[in-house]
Design a protein that fits this description.
This protein has 476 residues and is α/β, with parallel strands linked by helices. It has helices at 18-29, 44-49, 51-68, 83-93, 100-108, 160-163, 168-172, 188-200, 219-232, 320-338, 356-359, 378-383, 399-402, 437-445, 450-453, 466-475; strands spanning 2-14, 34-38, 112-115, 117-120, 125-129, 134-146, 150-152, 180-184, 203-208, 235-238, 242-248, 251-256, 261-264, 266-269, 273-275, 307-309, 362-365, 371-375, 388-394, 411-417, 422-429. Its cofactor is FAD.
Amino acid sequence: MTESETIAYDVVVLGAGPVGENVADRTRAAGLSTALVESERVGGECSYWACMPSKALLRPVVARAEARRVPGLGQAVRGPLDAAAVLARRDEYASHWHDDGQVAWVESIGADLYRGHGRLAGERSVTVTAADGTVTTLTARHAVAVCTGTRARLPELPGLDDVGPWTSREATSAQEVPGRLLVVGGGVVAAEMATVFQALGSRVTVLVRGTGLLPRMEPFAGELVAEALTEAGADIRTGTSVTSVGRENGTVVAVTDAGDRLEADEILFATGRAPRTDDIGLETVGLEPGSWLTVDDTLRVDGTDWLYACGDVNHRALLTHQGKYQARIAGDVIGARAAGRALPPSDPWGPHTATADHHAVPQVVFTDPEAASVGLSLAEAERAGHRVRAVDVDLTSVAGAQLYGDGYRGRARMVVDLDEGILRGVTFVGPGVGELLHSATVAVAGRVPVDRLWHAVPSFPTISEVWLRLLEAYRG
């Protein structure tokens, strides 16, 4: 191990994924010298093993499904997908797992990149161990931001170490389509990857411990997605847990709590995420290694005046866009505090507080049908003590949805706060609904009165006319 000099910066950012990049962008815009530390690829999980490759895999699946519903077009797209072409296009979207372009972007904003394993080494200090063993110490005059994200969490199961299980990384970067795929889990990764591989030719079995898919959304979202997957040929088993796994002559064998013995070529565990904080030196600043980092609404870690945590590591909302939102706020906060500017106390609309994390988090699941939601579900709103009413509309009542072709199925719900006259949450399920979500996000985040939404006239004939149908149903 070779020790090099100590280098001082205003800000040091651990993790150069999209969240860390956005912190660096904002602190550089504030005129602060900034170092970015990355142990893998600049661009992080989203660019190479999550958002970008998964959506590249899903797009041809969804496009074919939509085309098949249109009279006059359906017969032209009855054949199978070209799996090799789909995987090749995915490779392009993942930049063939090279980060040159993102490195060039870091250089363009004037931040310095350090490749290697970064660890806190006491207050305002980070050591970076490069691949050749060289250790560089970076000190921060104002702030260190932890943006190291999460990794897939695998269950403790007998035989798991011998199986070579897939996680989201192996699924999104797979170079071949397995003939049989077991998917364990019922969340977003499970639903999206089941959709991909069933369409590419795998025989997919999904094992869900709970009662259905997408448990964090309205129940009808998971029901409609499960219905479509079943019709496509997938076998979805709810209330089912895996008790052991193994490989026999190359074949994965999973045993369930019901005693069923299931065989597959690969098994994907989509059973949650764990913070990448186990080996970043948290113990040197009095924090628990491997823990989620609790922050205030300026993204500063509780009990410190210099340490920030943005994105997945603070466990507020494990979504790239939400992490980038936090990063923009944290970067501006760091810049303001470094300049000695006092921040206004708890300003919900100001640029220095991450209030959307609490009540207006949007998410799209890119299955067929798509599922999109923002804010609270009906059950969440009721648990929070709000007096609410759910208003539901069948999307087939909307002319714009009917234009998508025969067999369109979808549903929309808005959760209305009856005391405040605003929306607490909105959910859409159906082909093409992902692009509706930002209008709902603006309504929820902006606490737009429901009566005022009556004057936001949707264009005819678009799917956005569902807003009119929802308001009509609410008024009765």
